[in-house]
Structures are given as structure tokens and as C-alpha cells.
Amino acid sequence: MNEVAPANAGSTQADDGQTNAARAHAGRAISANIGDVLVSCRGLRKSFGDREVMKSIDFDMRAGDITVIIGRSGSGKSTLLRAIAGLTDPDDGEMTFDGEVVFSEQKRTPAWKQVDSHVGMIFQSYTLWPHMDVLKNLTLAPRKRLGMSESESLERAKKALAEVGMSDHIRSKPVQLSGGERQRVAIARALMMQPKLLLCDEITSALDPPVAAEVLDVLRRLKEEEGIAVALVTHDMAFASKAADRVVFFHEGEIAVNATPDDAFNHTEDPELKKFVEAVRF
Ligand SMILES: Nc1ncnc2c1ncn2[C@@H]1O[C@H](COP(=O)(O)OP(=O)(O)OP(=O)(O)O)[C@@H](O)[C@H]1O
Ligand SMILES: [Mg+2]
């Protein structure tokens, strides 16, 4: 994941005119085009103690798709996102990213280090550093860990903030921002690494519905304009039915349904999904 990108890059000019920092930052180039499989999970299993929270999960994500993940509390949604992001390792199974095996035989492969900077993850609780302004929050990791130059990180921060509609707040401290604004800055921070995949775990759960809708709209634009694949855990069924390409319903550690929003919400035969949709009816 981009927070743990390699720290071995300087910022000297390379032969092709690209800085080393920019190269390290991008990891290896991603070849998946929109519609191609970007992430593939096969037979992922994970237990905590004697509780199996992922039971042989098979799951694909395509470049440029929005996948909405729904399901009851404790069904395994966050565990899957964390496994894809490299924050937790499954006990078993295989994962590929852009066609290369990144997890196999109970461990990450060397190929993971080549692509992990393309994966960003955002959480429900705002993970901005409170004592730093927005600009510093965005530029600190790329500068410290990748050796990105000040001017390059500033340019990239301006672009990322423009993409989430937060250009006017570059000098604000997190305490001066609303919850929705902070989440948009958190998205901008993830964009600093130009991810191909954004994993969002209940990032709008603490927000009022109109503010949540604004934040989710940012994700939709990123998918449309940048071709970023987005997987998000959300209870926002209106967003899921409007914006998702796939809806994935988790039930007791298994993917019970993986379908288009129309099929998932209007034509499912799955009794648990029917119950779930009734319970959170929009
Ligand atoms: N580090 C951990 N140690 C022990 N148990 C864990 C750990 N992480 C998750 N679990 C357990 O695994 C199960 C699945 O957790 P997970 O966080 O994936 O659920 P979830 O679907 O995201 O739920 P929620 O909607 O409440 O966020 C839960 O029973 C949880 O208690
Ligand atoms: Mg969760």
C-alpha cells in the first residue's frame, strides 16, 4: 500500500527526464486498461483464533470499476480490504495485482513491492495529523519516504486538492475543516501516490447524508476521469445502486452475492441479501 512505499529513491534527474522520486512513487507501470482485471483473489482464507472470518474468498476487481461491498457487521468486509492493501496477510490463498502474483504460499511475493504504491486505503476515522496543515499532511510521506522534491510534492498536492475540490484549504489545519472536508483531504492524500486502486472502508459513515454524497461523488469522478478502481464498504445503498459497477454481499465470511446493482437489489434470490436490503431499505 502506498503508505509503505519503498524509501530508497533520491530526487535526482534520470535519463528519461523523470525524477527518481517520481519513478519510485509510481512503482512499476501498470498495464491493466479500463475493464481489465486489476486484482484477483482466489481461495483467500483467514481465521482469528478458531473463528474463520474469510472462507475461501474468490474476488476480482477490474480497472475503472467501483465495487461496493456490503454486509452485516463482522462478516469480513474490512478483513478483505486489509488483505488486498497488504495490512494483513491471509492464512491461505493467492492474490494477483495487474497479472502478477503478489501473495502466494502464505506470504507476499517480491512482486508486491513493485506494485504496492498503486494501492491506497482510507478509513472511517480521519487519519490526518492534527498539528500539520493540509499541505504538510499531503506532502510529508512522499517527501520523507520517496525523497520527492518540494516543488514536485507541491505541484502534486495542488492537483490532488483540485481533484477533490479542496484547493482553497491548502493551509488549513484539520481542526478547521468539517468531517466531509477532512475525508476529501484524506482522499487527496491517497491520490498523492497516483493509485490505481483505492480501498475505502466506511469513509462516509460519520457524515451527514448530503456531505457523504459529496465525498462519494469525488470517488465517482476519480473512476470516470482517472480510471481508478474503487472498492468501498458502505451502507449507502443509494450510492451503491447509482454508482457501483458491482455489488458484493458478504455473509459470514463468504461472498454470498457478486452482481450488478440491479441484480443485487432487484432480482436476488439470496435470502440473506433480501433480508439485509429490507433492513437498510433506501
Ligand atoms: N485483529 C483481529 N483480531 C481478532 N479478531 C479480529 C481481528 N480483526 C477482525 N477480527 C474479527 O473478524 C471478524 C470480521 O471482522 P471485519 O472487521 O472484517 O468485519 P466487517 O465486516 O468489516 O464488520 P463491520 O461492518 O463491523 O466493520 C469479526 O468477528 C472481528 O471481530
Ligand atoms: Mg469493517
What does this structure look like?
Belongs to the ABC transporter superfamily. There is one protein chain. By secondary structure, the protein is an alpha/beta fold. It has a single domain, classed as 3-Layer(aba) Sandwich (Rossmann fold), CATH 3.40.50. Helix content is 36%, strand content 24%. The strands form two sheets. Strands 7-8-9-3-10-11 form a six-stranded mixed sheet, with helices on both faces. It has a five-stranded antiparallel sheet with strand order 2-1-4-5-6. The chain is globular, with a radius of gyration of 19 Å. The N terminus is likely disordered. The chain binds adenosine-5'-triphosphate and magnesium ion. The site of adenosine-5'-triphosphate (ATP) has 10 residues, from helix 2.
List the helices and strands and how they pair.
Elements: H1 20-26, E1 37-48, E2 51-62, E3 66-71, H2 77-85, E4 92-97, E5 100-104, E6 107-108, H3 110-115, E7 119-122, H4 134-146, H5 150-163, H6 179-191, E8 197-201, H7 209-226, E9 229-233, H8 237-243, E10 246-251, E11 254-259, H9 261-266, H10 271-279
Parallel strand pairs: 3-9, 3-10, 7-8, 8-9
Antiparallel strand pairs: 1-2, 1-4, 4-5, 5-6, 10-11
The structure holds adenosine-5'-triphosphate and magnesium ion.
Give keywords.
282 residues; alpha/beta; Rossmann fold; six-stranded mixed sheet; five-stranded antiparallel sheet; 10 helices; binds adenosine-5'-triphosphate; binds magnesium ion
